[in-house]
Specification:
Two copies of one chain form a homodimer. Chain A is 74% helix and 0% strand. By secondary structure, the first copy, chain A, is mostly helical. Chain A has one domain: Tetracycline Repressor, domain 2, CATH 1.10.357. Chains A and B meet through helix 6, helix 7, helix 8, helix 9 and helix 10 of A and helix 6, helix 7, helix 8, helix 9 and helix 10 of B.
Chain lengths: 208, 208
Amino acid sequence: MPRPKEFNPDDAIEKAMQVFWHKGYEATSMEDLLSAMDLNRGSLYDTFGDKRQLFLKVMDRYCTNFVGLKFSLLNQPGPAIPALRRFIHGMIESSLGDPQRRGCLIANTVMELAPHENEIAGTLRQALKMAEDTFFQVLARAKQQGELMENKDPRALARFLTTMLQGTIVMIKSGASADAVKQTVETALSILDSADMFRPSIERSFDT
Amino acid sequence: MPRPKEFNPDDAIEKAMQVFWHKGYEATSMEDLLSAMDLNRGSLYDTFGDKRQLFLKVMDRYCTNFVGLKFSLLNQPGPAIPALRRFIHGMIESSLGDPQRRGCLIANTVMELAPHENEIAGTLRQALKMAEDTFFQVLARAKQQGELMENKDPRALARFLTTMLQGTIVMIKSGASADAVKQTVETALSILDSADMFRPSIERSFDT
């Protein structure tokens, strides 16, 4: 009877994620992974396959836990724009608060591996699309609830916010100051409501 | 008498840049570099040092030619906002037009190597600061020339545009459609003038 596996595959994937997130894909060696996951080579290959297959599993986990779970918070009923603002501020705060400023595993990997890794790039495209679609739903709801002006396009804004988040992560990784990053996020978010401050005046001028 | 060098160091650095840009830093081997630069190992080490030192020289070249030269076009007199729009559209078009969608060497490297490569991260921070400062100068000029509303902050907008460009490059590398990218850029640029469309109404309402 074969010796039963003595490790928890979930924990092992979590440990592998931390190594890839810190070092990047190429710079992570099998030795790094074996040591972090506390596995011998045979167990790792038997359970997860090679480095590339393990990385795809790590990406799945990251997309479900770090991206999917967080984004699902946005789909609760209630005022949409304040929830969206809180969500984006929370993402930025947690990225700024990481002492290593590792940024987002997805963005890091797009930048490192695309365009010569099609399957990995596909996983990343899917995650970015999921982010965009969730933003779209919140913004469409905001519009229905009268929180967003009629002339705003929820799809265009959803793409804009997804892109902006990626850019913010690049800046955080490059070592930008927390103040500069927060100012930039506020500037970006002003697009959601910038015209609203002029609404009363317009209504007034229509009334005259 | 030693055999004179038969290669042009400028051309060799240009060739090394293409390899790093396509493959990323870690995935580029000395063999890749020797083959692309058409050098033997001795000439490469004598002239450029090791892979890391060569990469720092490549970064310098990229910052001067691809970033510095392009950005210097923004400092010419004349209407500032149209020049800024043309510049940003030009950057995006050229990035979308690259069949390999390699993105920006600077952003790629930030994402791959920061936070564990301080000297390289420093070069990148400098390049991003140069971009931000150039945007700031153009936007300050726009404000002086009455092209930007009084309530707009040129420094905040400069940081916003720098961040936005980085995010756009992540999206381009991830395989986003050209239409989606262009729509996002238009949405972002609307921040420069979004309030202006309401100006006449406000002035009218003040006049009444």
